[in-house]
Amino acid sequence: MVNMRKTGSRPRRSREEWLEAALEVLSQHGGARIRVRDLCADLGVTTGSFYAHFDGRDEFVRSVATYWRHRYTTEIVERIRDASGDPKSRLIALAEGIIEQDLARFDVAVRGWAAQESGLASIIRQVDKERLGVVRDLFAELGFRDEELEMTTRTFVTYYSLEHSILVRQSKRKRLEEARRRIDMFLLPLARQSTRDGATPASEPTPRGDKP
Q: How much is the pLDDT for 2?
């Protein structure tokens, strides 16, 4: 019996290239195509390249989902939490970052795949916790509370997770132009409340990188 782990002594693709390739295949063809031999054919490598990085399919599947979480959620969440500026400017930076880096392009595919693969549900829950957490904190800083806070948070996260996949495509330039106006729309309840109370509305848009 051939030991495929010894096929090809040197990997021709990095671990990250394998994980990105899997996400691309997943988004275009679905989870049924996430098979070692099919991916090797797509990448033009031998099975030895795969086994240089992964012990088997089970580890690979979990690695793909973990990579998706880190690359397309954790990194930007950490940047937004560490950023200077008022909460409105950080919400704008978050929305622009999602659009500029196309961070939601694998969301629908990975979530559908997770329903078919055992062991991935916990990673999806971690992603949701991270996304909801950072957005909730920003809206709370702006003054949202209780049910209104939760509803606004979930609407923001859901919109930016699904917008890329289910709505008619717009140019990236157009989406970026609309991002700031959409944040203003999210903040309309605060502006109305401030007007009724005679207070100053929520912070005006702040150029990215400026300190409050």
A: 31
